[in-house]
Design brief:
alpha/beta; four-stranded antiparallel β-sheet; ATP binding; globular; 12 strands; 21% strand
C-alpha cells in the first residue's frame, strides 16, 4: 500500500437540523483508509456508522443534514470543497456504494442489465454495445448464472442474495478505487452472507479496491477487516488493526461488544441503558452512563482524546484510563484477555453477529466459526 492513505477523514462533524434540536450524528470522527485496505466501522444502531459513510460523498439529505466541519480527503482532494457537480462525477465512478437493502437500490421498472449499462455510460463514453458486454461480464463475475439471459430480467425475478450481487456488479461498473458497503449482508441468510463476503473479498483483490465496510456484526469484522473503527454515539471509541482490537480490546465499549459473542465473556447479558440523546449528549465520555469503569473524570469536559495503547500509535482509544499516569488495568481487569464485566447484545439483541469469534490469529486470516443468522428463510436458496 502507498504511504499516503486513499481516504483520510479528519474531525468530521455531520449534523441534522430537526424540530427537537441539532442532532450530532457524527461528532468529530477521524480515520484513514489505505489503498487496497478494508476498514470496518462497527457499533450499535444509532452510533453514526451509516451517516459517516454517506457523508463521504454527501449522500445525506440537505436540508436537514449538513456537514458542519471536518475534512474528507480522497486521493489528495478535499471532497468537502467540491461543487455538487464535481462530486457527482466522482460518486459512482471512483467511489461507489453498496447499500443494505438491494431491493431499494434497484429500480423495479428497469431490467438489471439496463441499470448497469446506465451506470457505465453515465461515467464513460462508450457505446451501448460495449457497455452491454461489460455489464454481462460483471454479472458473470459476481456469480449470476446465465448472465447473458438474466441481463434482461427485472429485479423482482431475483432472490435477495442475487439482487445484492447485482447491486455489487453495478457498483463495480466503473472500477472504483473505494467501495463503501453499508451492512451489505444484514438482510440475507447466513449462508448467503458468507457467499457475499467471499465475493467482496475476491473482487477487492481483482479490482485492487479499498473497502469501507459498515456493520454491527463483529463476526463480519473478524472475517474481512484489516483495521477496525469502533463508534458509539457519533464518536470513535477505539480504532486499530483488527488483530490488535480483537486480541487486546481497550475501550470498555469494545470489550462489551466482544463479550456478547459466544466464547467470549458470558455471551448472554447486555449493558443496561441505551444510547444517549443525540441532541443533548452527556458531558465527558459518551459511553460513561453505561460504563462500569466510569470515574469522575469520565463525566467531565469533552470526549477524551485518543491515547496510544501500549505506545502503539496505530491502536488508539478514547478513554481517560489510558491518559499519562492512568491505569489501563482498570479496564483490562488486570490482564490482556478480553472480558470486562457486562456484555452488550450489539444492535438490540436480534442475534445477528453472534459468531463464535475467539482471539484472531496475527496473520489477518480471520475466520469466524459463524457469522450469525437473522432467522430468515427467504434467501435460504440463493437461486437464479
Amino acid at each position: 500500500m502507498s504511504a499516503e492513505p486513499l481516504l483520510s477523514i479528519r474531525d468530521l462533524r455531520t449534523v441534522f437540523h430537526t424540530d427537537d434540536g441539532l442532532v450530532r450524528a457524527v461528532d468529530g470522527v477521524s480515520f484513514d483508509i489505505g489503498r487496497g485496505e478494508t476498514v470496518c466501522i462497527v457499533g450499535e444502531s444509532g452510533s453514526g456508522k451509516t451517516v459517516t459513510g454517506e457523508s463521504i460523498t454527501r449522500l445525506i439529505r440537505t436540508p436537514p443534514g449538513e456537514i458542519a466541519a471536518g475534512e474528507i480527503v480522497f486521493d489528495g482532494q478535499d471532497l468537502t470543497a467540491l461543487s455538487d457537480e464535481a462530486l457527482r462525477a466522482l460518486r459512482g465512478d471512483r467511489i461507489a456504494h453498496v447499500f443494505q437493502n438491494p431491493q431499494g437500490a434497484l429500480n423495479p421498472v428497469y431490467t438489471v442489465g439496463w441499470q448497469i449499462v446506465e451506470a457505465i455510460r453515465l461515467h464513460e463514453d462508450v457505446s451501448k454495445g460495449a457497455a452491454r458486454d461489460r455489464a454481462v461480464d460483471l454479472l458473470d463475475r459476481v456469480g449470476i448464472p446465465e448472465a447473458t439471459r438474466r441481463f434482461d430480467d427485472y429485479p423482482h425475478e431475483f432472490s435477495g442474495g442475487m439482487k445484492q450481487r447485482v447491486s455489487i456488479a453495478m457498483a463495480l461498473a466503473t472500477n472504483p478505487d473505494l467501495l463503501i458497503a453499508d451492512e451489505p449482508t444484514t438482510a440475507l441468510d447466513v449462508t448467503i452472507q458468507n457467499q457475499i463476503l467471499s465475493l467482496l473479498d475476491d473482487l477487492q483483490t481483482e479490482f485492487d479496491m479499498s473497502v469501507l465496510l459498515i456493520t454491527h456484526d463483529l463476526g463480519v469484522v473478524a472475517e474481512v477487516a484489516d483495521r477496525v473503527v469502533v463508534m458509539y454515539a457519533g464518536k470513535v471509541m477505539e480504532r486499530g488493526g483488527v488483530f490488535d482490537v480483537f486480541e487486546q480490546p481497550s475501550h470498555p465499549y469494545t470489550r462489551a461488544l466482544l463479550d456478547c459473542l459466544p466464547g467470549r465473556g458470558d455471551g448472554a447479558a447486555s449493558i443496561g441503558g441505551r444510547l444517549p440523546s443525540s441532541t443533548d449528549p452527556p458531558a465527558g465520555c459518551r459511553f460513561h452512563p453505561r460504563c462500569e469503569h466510569a470515574v469522575d473524570a469520565c463525566r467531565e469536559g469533552e470526549q477524551p482524546p485518543d491515547y496510544a495503547v501500549d505506545g502503539d500509535d496505530d491502536h488508539v482509544v478514547s478513554c481517560v484510563h489510558y491518559e499519562p499516569g492512568g491505569d489501563p488495568s482498570v479496564v483490562r481487569g488486570g490482564g490482556d484477555d478480553a472480558g470486562s464485566g457486562d456484555a452488550v447484545d450489539d444492535d438490540g439483541g436480534d442475534g445477528r453477529g453472534s459468531g463464535a469469534v475467539g482471539t484472531p490469529p496475527a496473520d489477518r486470516t480471520l475466520r469466524a466459526e459463524s457469522l450469525g443468522d437473522d432467522g430468515s428463510d427467504a434467501d435460504r436458496e440463493d437461486r437464479a
